[in-house]
Hints:
Layout: H1 5-14, H2 19-26, H3 30-37, H4 49-59, H5 74-86, E1 89-91, E2 104-107, E3 109-115, E4 122-123, E5 134-137, H6 138-144, E6 151-157, E7 170-174, E8 185-190, E9 193-202, E10 205-209, E11 220-221, E12 228-236
Parallel strand pairs: 3-6
Antiparallel strand pairs: 1-5, 2-5, 3-4, 6-7, 7-12, 8-9, 8-12, 9-10, 10-11
Helix pairs in contact: 2-3
Amino acid sequence: MGPSHLKIKALRKAAKMTQQQVADAIGVSRAAVSQWEADEPEKRTTPSYENLDSLASCLGATMNDFFEYAALPPEQIQREAKQFLDHQAYEMLELGYAPIDEQLISIPELDVRLCAGTGGFEVQRVPEESGESVYYKKSWLTKRGYKPENLVRLSVTGSSMEPALFDGDKVTLNLASKTPKNGFAFAVMLDGQPAIKRMLKRNNQWWITSDNPSYSKFDIELESTEIIIGEAVDKSSSVI
């Protein structure tokens, strides 16, 4: 569960502000505000953590004011919150019962889709107000030595990394990690295009490989680490 579109609308009206006034105040388009308040689920989008924070300041509210808690008994809220806190990351659509005062770091989704096949990549700009940023607990990042400025979120296309990665999966890359690790997935530049592959060491030689056996004929030797973009350190998938 994410921030309630009904609460966003109610708080805006309570502040006697139009959608355009709110948009101008926080630096987004009026269409973005309209999508946050949309009654139809297929037209509704979720504001990023930063935009929700700006929205709270603009409307004289708190982050908690945008979420629905009343329907749940206190013990269930506590149980749900613990489940979220035990998970390494959760996206805004899943934030419903997580404490908002937990320090979260937003990793934005970029406009490049990784290719997990052989067709290169496609450019698809994801506007900030409608993009699908992922949120990590600062403590989780610190424990693993990840710096937010080195992390990017990308979407995978293709089937060459199945069953580890499917078309449409989201991958977080650590751009500071460019040293090959046996058995780990990395984003690399192949023929001037980014692709996500697995590094394997065979007979003291690094190989760029695919998980899907159907793509094994495309395995190539790693001739230079300069083509490594970064290590895949986390993923989310809609495939069950």
